[in-house]
Amino acid sequence: MQIGIVAKKIGVSVDAIRFYERNGLLPKPPRTEGGFRRYDQNDIETLAFVRRVQGLGFKLSEIRGLLPLRGNRLQPCAPVQRRLQEKLADVQQKLSDLRKLEHELRLALRSCNRELRKRGVHCPILRETHKRGSDIDDFGLGAPAKNGSGELARARGKGEVR
Question: What is the DSSP letter of 121?
Fold first, then answer.
């Protein structure tokens, strides 16, 4: 089957299929005499699998680790279960962080609303306090800071970054 037909069948772009090939998620298919890629049913199933686990939030590097398990005749569930549990824990942590961020934003918005009712000249969010340090504002909200993994973390009341 040619790449365009496979792309339509799976619901991905031709470029996505080529990308998966370049990144080792799909083996390079044989080519016709005219140079066209030729895919078989196993390739289609692999692409469908990649798309499905991407939808579960798995990164390409994580998917690359799952593919050999898929090819195993025994298809052990324990390693997959462990990876799913890790992914679920990541999602739960992100949800918790988002709830904290939502709370911080609500506090900041309340402060702005109070200042607007007073017809204040100074925006409390933009006002910097020199007493607490440069990364802490008037509300005890932390400025965005990078944590060890390169993700944004929220600085807490005493300037700690978790």
Answer: S
Contacts of 28 (CB under 8 A, 6+ apart): 21
CB atoms within 10 A of CB 156: 14
pLDDT in tens, 101-115: 999 999 989 988 888
Residue 162 domain-assigned (yes or no): no
Scanning 56-157, the segments in alpha helix (DSSP H) are 60-71, 78-117
User: Does the residue 159 lie in any domain?
Assistant: no
Do residues 88 and 137 both lie within one domain?
yes
CA angle 26, 31, 32 (to 5 degrees): 150
Cut 0.70: pTM above it: no
How many C-beta neighbours within 10 Å does residue 77 have? 10
